[in-house]
Amino acid sequence: MPVEEGIYGLLAEFNTPQAMVHATEKARDAGFRRMECYTPYPVEEAATALDVHRNRVPLLTLLGGIMGLTTASLMQVWMSQISYNVNIAGRPLFSWPAFIIPAYEWTILFAGLSAAFSMLALNGLPQPYHPVFNAPNFRSGATDDKFFLCLEAIDPRFELEDTRLFLEQFHAVSVVEVDL
C-alpha cells in the first residue's frame, strides 16, 4: 500500500526498556524491517532486537590505514630517490629503516581520520532535523526516562490502522503519528 503523504511513521512510547525491546522483537517477528528505537541511554538488547549487526567502520578504518601507509611510503621513496636524491655518508637512497616511523604515523593518522569521518557519514550525522522531533511526546521524554519504538511508513508491511493496532497490543503509553 502506498505511503500516506506527510506520515513518517508511528511512534510508540514505553515506560521501561524491557517493554520496548519486547515490542521491537515482536515487530521484527511480524515482518517489520524499517524501525528504530530511541532511548535516553544505550540499551544493548534493543540493538539485538533491531538486528543491527552490519558495521562497515572497521573495514573503512583498515582501508584508511592502508592508504596512509601507501601514501607515506610512496612519498618517502619519491623524495629520497627521484625528487631530492642526495647521497649522504654513502647510505643507499632507499633506506627503509628510516621510513618506518613516518609510515607508521601516517597509517595511524589516516586510519583515525577515516574511522571518525566514516562513522559520521554512516550514522547520517550531522542531522539537525529528524521527523520524530515533531511528535509531542518525544520532546518531553526522549532524553529523560521514556523509551520509543518508531515503525516507519516506508516499510512494505506498514499500513496505518493495522500498525496502530499492532503497537497498541503492547500496552504502550501512547501511539502517535509522526508527521514529515
Q: Which structural category fits the helices and strands?
A: alpha+beta
Which residues form runs of ≥5 with pLDDT under 50? none
Number of β-strand runs: 4
Share of helical residues: 40-55%
Any idea of the CATH class of the largest domain? Answer: Alpha Beta
User: What is the 3D form?
Assistant: rod-shaped
Features of the shown structure:
180 residues, alpha+beta, Alpha-Beta Plaits, four-stranded antiparallel sheet, 49% helix, 13% strand
Q: Can you walk me through this structure?
A:
- With 180 residues, the protein is an alpha+beta fold.
- The protein folds into two domains: 7-54 and 132-179, Alpha-Beta Plaits (2-Layer Sandwich); 57-122, no CATH class.
- The protein has helices at residues 17-29, 44-49, 57-83, 96-122, 136-141, 160-168, and strands at residues 7-14, 35-38, 147-152, 174-179.
- Strands 2-3-1-4 form a four-stranded antiparallel β-sheet.
Short description:
It is built from six helices and four strands, in the order βαβααααβαβ. The two termini are 18 Å apart. It folds into two domains: 96 residues, Alpha-Beta Plaits, CATH 3.30.70; 66 residues, no CATH class.
